[in-house]
What does this fold into?
Amino acid sequence: MKPADRPNLKIDSDRLWSSLMELAEIGGTEKGGVCRIALTDLDRQGRDLFVRWAKAAGCTIKVDQLGNVFAAARAAIRPSRR
It folds into this structure.
């Protein structure tokens, strides 16, 4: 998909930055980095936050056997182009 295929897509840069900073608080380090080692409580908290955001956006959530989180948005149904 090319940008021209989605001309109505708008990114709220302030909201994106705010979300990233909220996620960075989970496992944030003194030097400004983030450390969320897999399978730790901090890792779970970060995943839980992402899942909350995705569900609030109307996505369905799947978690595979390894713990990877997949969020899928329902596709808009467009009339066929004939």
